[in-house]
Write a sequence for this structure.
């Protein structure tokens, strides 16, 4: 979380982070795939996802002269500014081509609709004057005129709703596309998990907070403009109709010019001031409520994603306790927010009940003495209500304004975290791992590679490794020695450190983590991932599944099921190996990719990969000594103070084949030889 001293919300840590760079020469760390056929996007969706966001703003340095409270206020103000820096791009040359036409059309409709309101207000006076005078022809004529007035006003309101919601939808689409693009670029969605900052639950911010942050401003602007035009128009009406009010006080009189206007302003001032005072904590409570809701959703999502582990361990009671605590926090914030809503409802409801009565009581003396007709009284009452509604716009919308304020700050916090990662790509304040090309036939070269945390703490230091095509390298070492971190740095997911990772130009890399990702949808899609399901035929996918021991699923390839929950850990790892066979990359990185398989299944899986992809280069991280039999070389990392170091780099001697086990395995492996000799002695 950000500290209060981080003035104007500039992230002290994130601003200097170095995210990864893509390897040159076409190397693709995130997976190898066949050329994907271009899909035809939805026409309407494509027309709304256009434009691009401006580059991130320059970092604002903290002001050491501010107190923590002042710094926190400055941070909140800057968050709103940061939101508008990106959001206003929708109306720029980088934005949506329909942004300005829709906005101008909406403004015109608002102005015309105020004209219709004035026409209905004049009609109101005329009809009551005609009724008072018992003028039947005029009453009938005005009754006929009322229908087109209403139809025109209703049509304008409907058109306003359409344009307003169109702007909201397209603005949300444009800004969401921009933020998601930044979030997914260069693995920033992963890097956000590794750095400090106020960007928890980014999925909730993008889905919920961004919706509120783009919907409310359009409503506010159109509401404010309508309120301003209505107030300006009908203040003139009140001044003209009401005139001056003369009150007898003792033996003298007091004349109040424009008494209806003065009363409307005073009345609106009292209600608006009351709302501001009563709802001064609305923003803070809305922000806290939104964060509590996001945490509650995240807790439930974690239970769903880890349902199998929780069920096997019998952790339902502990999970229920955690869910109850999180939900209690949500209810507590809602209770506090409900108190704010109750107090604001008191002001709003009281104001709406008094507003129609006040002008009638004020005009009653002039009506009774004959200086004001019934039509004028009703016109004044109608105009007073419109002016009061315009002045009291804040009374009705303050809760939404507070909710928007909280949502805009949350999405701005995520923007700032992404800003820091983007700036880090160009900054040299903290070392980063360079990525380039090898100059010969070398497949992968780790040149003085060091891996560090985002705060500069070294994890792995000064690693020199050269991997030739077809070589199978095993990375060993005790837990916590930095093996997985090294693999992530090679794959480009871990950007911080020094030295370089050089790939053979044009070669493709595929990484298999210990817990393979299984996307939603059909088994065909899961097997083809990250390629498109249609990139391979069903017979090709069935053959790949059969080779990795998943032939029993061959008839369910097109079945849409929750495969992430259906498949066991071992089946998921087998499915990941099926992806390897389909994508046929040049280099494979295995990070404990067979940990869920038994030894026999592990051996068969490695045999299959070596047999089907005989020229593939393999880089493995594993603890099982049995895997040495499938590797030609082994490096060992040893954890030391100041960062793990490479302490050995040895060639694994070819192992002689022996009996059934020898016919099942080939390659090299000193540990397997020792185990065989031990079994013979016993």
């Amino acid at each position: 979380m950000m500290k209060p001293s981080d003035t104007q919300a500039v992230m002290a840590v994130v601003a200097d982070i170095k995210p990864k760079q893509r390897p040159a020469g076409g190397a693709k760390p995130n997976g190898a795939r066949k050329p994907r056929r271009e899909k035809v996007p939805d026409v309407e969706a494509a027309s709304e996802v256009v434009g691009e966001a401006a580059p991130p703003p320059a970092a604002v340095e903290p002001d050491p002269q501010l107190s923590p409270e002042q710094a926190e206020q400055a941070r909140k103000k800057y968050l709103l500014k940061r939101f508008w820096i990106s959001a206003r791009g929708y109306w720029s040359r980088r934005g949506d081509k329909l942004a300005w036409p829709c906005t101008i059309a909406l403004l015109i409709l608002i102005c015309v609709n105020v004209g219709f309101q004035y026409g209905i207000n004049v009609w109101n006076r005329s009809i009551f004057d005609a009724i008072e005078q018992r003028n039947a022809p005029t009453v009938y004529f005005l009754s006929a005129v009322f229908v087109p007035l209403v139809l025109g006003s209703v049509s304008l309101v409907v058109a306003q709703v359409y344009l307003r919601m169109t702007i909201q939808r397209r603005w949300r689409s444009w800004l969401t596309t921009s933020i998601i693009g930044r979030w997914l670029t260069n693995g920033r969605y992963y890097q956000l998990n590794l750095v400090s900052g106020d960007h928890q639950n980014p999925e909730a911010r993008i889905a919920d907070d961004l919706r509120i942050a783009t919907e409310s401003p359009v409503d506010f602007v159109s509401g404010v403009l309508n309120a301003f035009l209505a107030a300006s128009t009908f203040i003139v009406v009140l001044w003209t109709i009401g005139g001056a009010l003369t009150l007898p006080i003792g033996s003298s009189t007091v004349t109040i010019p424009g008494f209806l206007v003065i009363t409307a302003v005073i009345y609106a001032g009292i209600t608006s001031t009351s709302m501001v005072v009563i709802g001064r904590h609305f923003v803070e409570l809305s922000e806290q409520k939104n964060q509590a809701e996001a945490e509650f959703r995240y807790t439930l999502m974690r239970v769903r994603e880890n349902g199998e582990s929780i069920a096997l361990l019998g952790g339902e009671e502990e999970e229920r306790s955690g869910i109850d605590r999180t939900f209690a926090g949500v209810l507590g914030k809602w209770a506090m927010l409900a108190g704010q809503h109750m107090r604001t409802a008191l002001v709003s409801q009281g104001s709406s009940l008094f507003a129609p009565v006040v002008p009638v009581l004020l005009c009653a003396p002039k009506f009774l003495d004959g200086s004001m007709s019934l039509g004028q009284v009703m016109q004044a009452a109608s105009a007073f209500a419109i002016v009061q509604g315009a002045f009291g716009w804040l009374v009705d919308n303050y809760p939404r304004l507070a909710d928007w304020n909280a949502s805009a700050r949350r999405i701005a916090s995520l923007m700032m975290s992404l800003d820091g990662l983007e700036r880090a790509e160009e900054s040299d304040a903290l070392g980063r791992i360079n990525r380039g090309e090898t100059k010969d036939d070398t497949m992968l070269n780790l040149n003085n590679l060091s891996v560090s945390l985002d705060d500069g703490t070294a994890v792995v230091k000064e690693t020199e490794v050269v991997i030739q095509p077809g070589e199978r390298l095993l990375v060993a070492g005790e837990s916590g020695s930095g093996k997985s971190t090294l693999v992530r740095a090679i794959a480009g997911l871990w950007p911080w450190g020094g030295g370089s990772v050089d790939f053979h130009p044009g070669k493709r890399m595929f990484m298999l983590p210990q817990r393979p990702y299984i996307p939603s949808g059909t088994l065909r899609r899961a097997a083809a991932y990250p390629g498109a399901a249609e990139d391979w035929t069903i017979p090709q996918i069935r053959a790949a599944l059969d080779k990795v021991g998943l032939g029993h699923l061959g008839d369910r390839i097109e079945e849409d099921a929750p495969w992430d929950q259906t498949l066991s850990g071992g089946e998921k790892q087998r499915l990941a190996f099926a992806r390897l066979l389909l994508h046929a990359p040049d280099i494979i990185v295995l990070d404990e990719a067979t940990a869920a398989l038994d030894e026999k299944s592990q051996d068969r899986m490695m045999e299959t990969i070596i047999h089907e992809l005989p020229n593939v280069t393999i880089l493995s991280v594993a603890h099982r000594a049995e895997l040495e039999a499938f590797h030609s070389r082994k490096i060992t990392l040893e954890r030391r103070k100041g960062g793990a170091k490479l302490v050995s780099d040895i060639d694994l001697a070819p192992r002689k084949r022996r009996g059934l086990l020898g016919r099942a395995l080939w390659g090299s492996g000193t540990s397997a030889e020792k185990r065989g000799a031990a079994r013979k002695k016993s």
